[in-house]
């Protein structure tokens, strides 16, 4: 028995160090979310306040993060932009999760043509490399924040459905499902009331990691001019507008939103992996 | 094996056929009439002019006929006429393809060489600081959006240090390589993590294998063991993954070409969407999907072809 008390220690050490990083990341994310929520109170300027006397200024006392090509305050723009940049991924994952959970559970539970159809649809979608499927949907629906969110939700739905399907399939062979079935609980009821809540912990970590991915995709689409349109200060759009400044030798207009996108994605990934680990450990 | 090839290729053709329908009919459903875009000047929009333009681009025929005409054209190399440039789409694509393929090729060389070296280094120093550093760095790089990496490189190496040009494509081979260096690096960095991970995993499997132990026992020098016994057997999964990543880099050029103002098929696609130039959008999307699907299917088949041999070797 002594091995049981000795062995966890070396395994715990890297874990607790990783915990510190995960902590820092969580705090950073909370700060960003609070900043986005309280943007009107925290921002020193209006996000669209033009000041031609102060274009492309470096960080100083008046403008903590500098200004862009129209003299707009980058800190204020970043704070307001956080709303579009964070709300977009939340909305699209919400849409995709609801649809994906329903389709994935149905495919695993019923099998048959629903399962085949899901497999065919994912086959065709995965035939488009990278973000090209989303680009096609945008070509059809037109540009704009709303259409990019819908397009990305469409792209993420089969991904989530496939993951749900694998989780539900693993869950269905567990004894409690048969137990409820014997008690006469209807299959729909078992699926909704017992199976979905049981796969939720595994879902959460996966969704957090997907959030980082979705944020990056959304920013990329905005950068290409497909997503949020001016005067929004969505971070990807801010990078696009700052691009001309970089060639002129001013890097703050790109660095501020670019660093924010990168830091949030990294932080979300770290926290997501940590949550998945925790949930899996608890399940065991 | 033959039946497997037939099954895989058949499946690929079916998927491509459905993808072609998705691409074509989705764009048909797009709101707005391309004809008014083609004519441009609102004053010239008369019923006669609309009818003439429709006939010119074959838009007066039933949609299903248009689809099969287009699909037939995909095979014969006639990809329609661009609404925006008033040129054959094939001319546009072929003239811009070298830039895109050059970019993908350059980026592939970078990520494969650097990724394999990093993965190998991590495998040889498994569990030590190098291993952790490689994993952390490559994972971090894959979390950064490629357009942000690109613009940071432009600022540091292009604008400040003036080592590289910031946009466009030069004249002559060496100038073009020099112009494509920053775009290729930006494209390659995100792909490092995958290839380093696969190399590490695959090399570790071989390092633990008996035949490597035996080679060491014979007193072979470490570099020779790595080259002749570890790498030679580890290549399979590395090549498979590299090919899949190379194929998906094609989509990544859409973003990178925009960052560096390169006129490849990526920017052709973006401009096509912005100007509702659907023949161009259809052609570029179809081209990329076909290239991606053919590459992944071929790699998949090759892997199956090589796998039994590898399995025999591992158990022997």
Tell me what the structure shows:
With 284 residues, chain A is an all-alpha fold. Chain A has helices spanning 2-6, 8-37, 39-42, 74-110, 112-125, 132-141, 145-172, 175-182, 187-223, 235-248, 252-283. In chain A, 77% of the residues lie in helices and 0% in strands. In chain A, helix 5 (112-125) packs across helix 7 (145-172) and helix 10 runs antiparallel to helix 11 (252-283). Mean pLDDT of chain A is 85; it is low at 1-16. Chain B has 316 residues and is an all-alpha fold. The chains are: A mainly alpha (284), B mainly alpha (316). Chains A and B meet through helix 5, helix 6, helix 9, helix 10 and helix 11 of A and helix 1, helix 6, helix 7, helix 11 and helix 12 of B.
Please give a quick description of this structure.
Chain A is mainly α. Chain A has 11 helices and no strands.
Distance between the termini of chain B: 23 Å
Radius of gyration of chain A: 23 Å
Q: Count all strands of chain A and give the number.
A: 0
Query: Which CATH class of the domain at 83-236 and 266-283 in chain A is shown?
Result: Mainly Alpha
N-to-C series of helices and strands of chain A: HHHHHHHHHHH
CATH superfamily of the domain at 83-236 and 266-283 in chain A: MetI-like
Question: What layout of secondary structure does this protein have?
Answer:
The complex is a heterodimer of chains A (284) and B (316).
Chain A lengths: L1 H5 L1 H30 L1 H4 L31 H37 L1 H14 L6 H10 L3 H28 L2 H8 L4 H37 L11 H14 L3 H32 L1
Helix pairs in contact in A: 2-4, 2-11, 4-5, 4-7, 4-9, 5-7, 6-7, 7-9, 9-10, 9-11, 10-11
Chain B lengths: L1 H27 L5 H6 L7 H10 L6 H14 L12 H36 L4 H15 L2 H15 L12 H17 L2 H16 L2 H8 L4 H39 L4 H10 L3 H38 L1
Helix pairs in contact in B: 1-13, 5-6, 5-8, 5-9, 5-11, 5-13, 6-9, 7-8, 7-11, 8-11, 9-11, 10-11, 11-12, 11-13, 12-13
């Amino acid at each position: 028995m002594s091995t049981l008390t000795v062995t966890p220690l070396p395994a715990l050490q890297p874990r607790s160090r990783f915990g510190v990083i995960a902590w820092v990341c969580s705090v950073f994310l909370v700060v960003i979310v609070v900043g986005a929520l309280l943007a009107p109170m925290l921002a020193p300027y209006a996000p669209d306040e033009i000041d031609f006397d102060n274009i492309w200024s470096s960080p100083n006392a008046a403008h903590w993060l500098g200004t862009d090509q129209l003299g707009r305050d980058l800190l204020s723009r970043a704070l307001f932009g956080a709303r579009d940049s964070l709300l977009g991924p939340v909305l699209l994952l919400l849409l995709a999760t609801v649809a994906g959970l329903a389709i994935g559970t149905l495919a695993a539970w019923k099998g048959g043509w629903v399962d085949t159809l899901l497999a065919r649809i994912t086959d065709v979608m995965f035939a488009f490399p990278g973000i090209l499927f989303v680009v096609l949907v945008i070509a059809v629906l037109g540009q704009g924040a709303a259409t990019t969110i819908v397009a990305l939700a469409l792209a993420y739905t089969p991904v989530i459905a496939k993951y749900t399907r694998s989780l539900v399939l693993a869950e269905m062979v567990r004894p409690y499902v048969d137990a409820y079935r014997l008690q006469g609980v209807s299959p729909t009821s078992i699926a909704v009331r017992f199976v979905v809540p049981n796969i939720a912990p595994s879902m959460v970590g996966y969704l957090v990691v997907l959030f980082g991915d979705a944020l990056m995709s959304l920013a990329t689409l905005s950068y290409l001019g497909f997503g949020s349109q001016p005067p929004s200060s969505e971070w990807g759009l801010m990078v696009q507008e700052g691009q001309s400044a970089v060639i002129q030798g001013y890097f703050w207009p790109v660095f501020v939103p670019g660093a924010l996108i990168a830091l949030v994605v990294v932080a979300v990934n770290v926290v997501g992996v940590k949550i998945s680990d925790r949930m899996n450990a608890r399940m065991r | 094996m033959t039946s497997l090839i037939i099954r895989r290729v058949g499946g690929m053709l079916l998927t491509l056929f459905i993808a072609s329908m998705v691409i074509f009919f989705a764009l048909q459903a797009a709101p707005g009439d391309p004809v008014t875009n083609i004519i441009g000047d609102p004053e010239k929009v008369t019923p006669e002019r609309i009818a003439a333009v429709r006939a010119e681009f074959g838009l007066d025929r039933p949609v299903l006929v248009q689809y099969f005409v287009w699909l037939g054209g995909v095979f014969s190399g006639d990809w329609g006429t661009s609404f925006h440039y008033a040129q054959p789409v094939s001319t546009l694509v072929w003239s811009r393809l070298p830039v895109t393929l050059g970019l993908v090729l350059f980026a592939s060389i970078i990520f494969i060489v650097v990724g394999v070296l990093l993965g190998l280094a991590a495998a040889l120093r498994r569990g030590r600081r190098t291993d952790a550093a490689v994993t952390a760095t490559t994972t971090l790089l894959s979390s950064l959006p490629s357009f942000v990496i690109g613009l940071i490189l432009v600022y540091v190496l292009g604008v400040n240090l003036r080592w590289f040009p910031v946009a466009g494509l030069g004249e002559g081979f060496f100038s073009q390589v020099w112009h494509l260096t920053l775009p290729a690096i930006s494209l390659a960095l995100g792909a490092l993590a995958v290839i380093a991970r696969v190399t590490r995993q695959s090399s570790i499997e071989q390092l633990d294998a008996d035949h490597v132990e035996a080679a060491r026992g014979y007193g072979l020098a470490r570099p020779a063991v790595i080259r002749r016994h570890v790498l030679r057997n580890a290549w399979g999964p590395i090549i498979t993954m590299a090919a899949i990543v190379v194929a998906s880099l094609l989509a990544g050029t859409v973003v990178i070409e925009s960052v560096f103002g390169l006129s490849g098929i990526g920017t052709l696609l973006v401009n096509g969407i912005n100007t509702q130039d659907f023949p161009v959008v259809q052609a570029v999307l179809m081209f990329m999907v076909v290239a991606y699907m053919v590459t992944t299917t071929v790699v998949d088949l090759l892997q199956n072809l090589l796998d039994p041999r590898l399995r025999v070797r591992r158990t022997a």
